[in-house]
Design brief:
With 228 residues, this protein is α/β, with parallel strands linked by helices. It is built from nine helices and seven strands. The chain has one domain: Rossmann fold. The chain binds adenosine monophosphate (AMP).
Length: 228
């Protein structure tokens, strides 16, 4: 089962993605995580990506597209994958679709968390990352997942902020790219929705991101249960 996962930064994709990964037993491939790992290891890829990431801009397609296409060829992807954070613009969407079509690989499901831009921004500024597990949900602006003092509410681990989460200009920049209907991420979503109307795949699963983490999970599982 091959899945694409869309939603603006701050919509809770990371949390829900971890649930899908468990349920479907497929790798959750997050391009942002791959970049951040490369930055902390000091690799050449990390060095090339860092300045764009710090500004909230996209890393160039020349770097990102081959990185993702190579990742999808790794052994753990044999039974499918959940791609999160890619495609991020129309060009990436077209390139991914062409490459997969060429290899007769379908994208089976597209999941989209729909969330208003202002709510997404508030959530981003409040989120905190647990050093033990990035998928432990902690957010000082969301009552239900407020950290335990300055410690992770799941495991008591240290909490950190992502540098690009506290920079309003960088958040706005990321959201400008996401909500861009001409050639940004929403344009990529639209591209797949058009394919879906023509070909019946990918199946589209839309989720209401205003709800709590548990409610979004419930909607996700119900809707996924109907398609897979
Ligand atoms: P994220 O963790 O998804 O918020 O991604 C963090 C940053 O990584 C983004 O703001 C971009 O700079 C970069 N990035 C992630 N995915 C992509 C992509 N598909 N194309 C280009 N840059 C990306």
């Amino acid at each position: 089962m091959n899945m694409l996962f869309f939603g603006p930064n701050g919509s809770g994709k990371g949390t829900q993605g971890a649930i899908i990964k468990e349920r479907q037993r497929i790798p959750h491939i997050e391009t942002g995580v791959i970049f951040r790992e490369n930055i902390s290891k000091g690799t050449e890829l990390g060095k090339m990506a860092k300045s764009s990431i710090d500004r909230g801009e996209l890393v160039s397609d020349e770097i990102t597209i081959p990185m993702v296409l190579n990742r999808l060829k790794e052994d753990d992807c044999i039974n499918g994958w959940l791609l999160d954070g890619f495609p991020r613009n129309l060009n990436q969407a077209v390139r991914l679709n062409k490459t997969l079509s060429h290899e007769s690989i379908d994208i089976n499901v597209l999941i989209e968390i729909i969330l208003d831009r202002e709510i997404a921004k508030k959530r981003i500024m409040g989120r905190r990352l647990c050093v033990n597990d990035n998928n432990h949900p902690n957010n000082i602006n969301i009552e239900a997942i407020r950290p335990d003092g300055d410690k992770c509410r799941i495991c008591g681990g240290e909490l950190k902020k992502r540098d690009d989460d506290q920079d309003e200009a960088a958040i706005d920049q990321r959201h400008d790219i996401y909500y861009n209907t001409k050639n940004g991420t929403i344009a990529a979503v639209k591209y797949y929705k058009n394919l879906s109307e023509t070909n019946g795949v990918p199946v589209i699963v839309e989720l209401d991101g205003r709800n709590s983490v548990e409610e979004v999970t419930k909607e996700l599982i119900e809707k996924l249960g109907n398609v897979i």
